[in-house]
Specification:
This protein is 7% helix and 38% strand. It is mainly beta and 529 residues long. The chain folds into 3 domains: 200 residues, Beta-galactosidase, Chain A, domain 5; 122 residues, no CATH class; 108 residues, Immunoglobulin-like. Strand 33 and strand 34 form a beta hairpin. The chain is elongated. It is found in: Periplasm. Pathway: Glycan metabolism; osmoregulated periplasmic glucan (OPG) biosynthesis.
């Protein structure tokens, strides 16, 4: 194998690299050691994924487990990639690439490659690329052990602060098929995944296919986007992915994927989003934590194929719950962080700056459902929310799926509804102040703001349109939220139920025949059971 650093010290470097298929304009990794050049295209990657899926699954070979286990949280935290070895550090293109190290929590190696002029060369791992203590167990890893993941670094100034690319990154891929971006407010939060297999399926463990090979397309000098290809493999399927990513107001990702199934899958989530919701203003938990709210996302927003706009506040349920919102050719959906008030979090980890993530289908997706899985949690360290598109057609062995979509990592949804938006959901004891509070009655306060609510004629009061899967409503009325701007209204009502099974509810506001707000959906768990 040719040692690239040796080549670059001689006048023969350019000619030797050109002979391997790399022109002088495509010299992408000046200090990294590279393997042999092999022909590459997205079509060949798709063909490779299809070929893999036709064979029994073989797990990627890992470095010795006894070494990886010693690279625990503390040891891993002392390992830093040396930015002088960053891919594309001196161009071409605007964004250098740095790499994550393997360790106890990231044991599956990812083979990284750089692509230029239709040829790919593997980036050979060496511990010289990382700054680590002399006694770090990482020194014991064999040559070309592989990397855990990667990130694109900043190399230009942001709107809010001056960013040093050596310290700031804007997109990261790490662990299985997880990836995330900083969004519009320069803060990481929720994640996306390449695929979700059997999330919350009774009697079946969830499967986590992984990106095993990643390919970085050498960008043009004036490029405003980066292109990354990935090969995914797991016991039930294999797939090929193309990511075209750009940073502007937020981060946009155009994703194309081809999936091939080895086995039947009970719940195949094609566009999974993963977030954390512990608690919000909805339910007050006594002494659960000192902060008023803790969540990366506070609701699921839906824009259906029929044009309805829906807001579903998230729950931290008493048991794992899967909800399905059937649709045909949806226009989009996302997990959003609508509450941007820092006083509602009072924390230095900036929950108020966490990105909202919106999925926009490209083309027609047909029939299926946006499924929401909510898992109980008692801490903020656990991602307990999954939202994903699940096709109506059963996911059978031998089947294939081609899908394209765009991800928007922003502060708000990219296509805001012209209707009033739901801003808060508050629960309390039912009944009236000063009167005995009846058992089995819960009071709801649902706030809406903006849109046609701001233009209501003086004296016109919105009407609450309510529905519940069971139970009965009482004391229903609407009122303007006191001491706030015009166009901020709330609906108040009591719900009486007699058992602890979940209750599905719908609510929107109207004036005459005019719909004023998006539709509020909520799943209520009586008595916390």
């Amino acid at each position: 194998m040719i040692d690239r650093r040796t080549l670059l010290t001689s006048a023969a470097a350019t000619a030797a690299l050109a002979a391997l298929g790399f022109s002088p304009a495509a010299l992408a990794a000046e200090k990294l050691k590279l393997g042999d050049a092999k022909a590459f295209s997205f079509d060949t990657l798709v063909a490779r994924a299809k070929e893999l899926a036709a064979k029994p699954y073989v797990a990627p070979k890992r470095p010795p487990a006894e070494i990886l286990e010693r690279i625990d949280y503390e040891a891993h935290g002392k390992i830093r990639f040396r930015t002088e070895y960053a891919l594309f550090a001196d161009g071409p293109g605007p964004y250098p690439v740095t790499f994550f190290h393997l360790g106890r929590f990231f044991q599956t190696p990812v083979r990284m490659h750089v692509v230029a002029e239709g040829k790919a060369r593997e980036i050979v791992y060496e511990d010289d690329y990382f700054d680590m203590p002399a006694d770090s167990p990482a020194h014991l890893l064999p040559r070309n052990a592989g990397f855990a993941g990667f990130r694109f670094q900043e190399s230009r100034l942001g709107d809010q602060q001056k960013l040093d690319w050596r310290k700031n990154d804007w997109v990261a891929f790490l662990g299985a098929s997880y990836f995330r971006a900083i969004g519009q407010l320069y803060q990481y939060g929720l994640s996306a995944r390449g695929i979700a297999v059997d999330v919350a399926v009774a009697g079946a463990p969830e499967e986590f296919p992984a990106f095993t090979h990643v390919y970085f397309d050498t960008p043009a000098p004036n490029a405003d986007a980066v292109t990354v290809y990935a090969l995914l493999d797991g016991p039930s399927l294999a797939g090929a992915y193309r990511f075209v990513m750009r940073q502007g107001e937020g981060v946009l990702m155009d994703i194309e994927k081809a999936l091939f199934l080895r086995k039947d899958v009970a719940r195949l989530g094609l566009t999974p989003l993963t977030s954390m919701f512990w608690y919000s203003e909805t339910v007050k938990q006594t002494a659960a934590d000192w902060r008023p709210e803790v969540h990366d996302s506070d609701g699921l927003a839906l824009w259906t194929g029929a044009g309805e706009r829906i807001w579903r506040p998230l729950n931290n349920p008493p048991r794992t719950i899967a909800s399905a919102f059937g649709d045909e050719n949806p226009r989009g959906f996302g997990l959003l962080q609508r509450d941007r008030n820092p006083d509602h979090y009072m924390d230095g980890v900036y929950y108020e700056r966490r990105p909202s993530l919106w999925v926009e289908p490209q083309g027609k997706w047909g029939k299926g459902a946006i499924q929401l899985v909510e898992i109980p949690t008692d801490d903020e360290i656990h991602d307990n929310i999954v939202a994903m598109w699940v096709p109506a057609e059963p996911a059978k062995a031998g089947s294939a799926h081609r899908l394209s979509y765009r991800l928007y990592w922003l502060a708000e949804e990219p296509f805001p509804t012209p209707l009033g938006r739901c801003m808060a959901t508050r629960l309390g004891n039912g009944g009236q102040p000063g009167q005995p509070r009846p058992k089995g009655v819960r009071k709801f306060m649902v706030e809406f703001k903006g849109g046609p609510l701001e233009k209501l004629p003086f004296g016109v009061k919105p009407e609450a349109v309510l529905w519940a899967s069971r139970g009965s409503f009482s004391y229903v009325f609407t009122e303007a939220v006191p001491n706030d701007v015009p166009g901020h209204w709330r609906a108040q009502f009591d719900l009486t139920v007699t058992s602890n099974e979940p209750v599905e509810m719908r609510l929107y506001l109207k004036a005459g025949d005019q719909v004023l707000t998006e539709t509020w959906l909520y799943q209520y768990h009586p008595f916390g059971a």
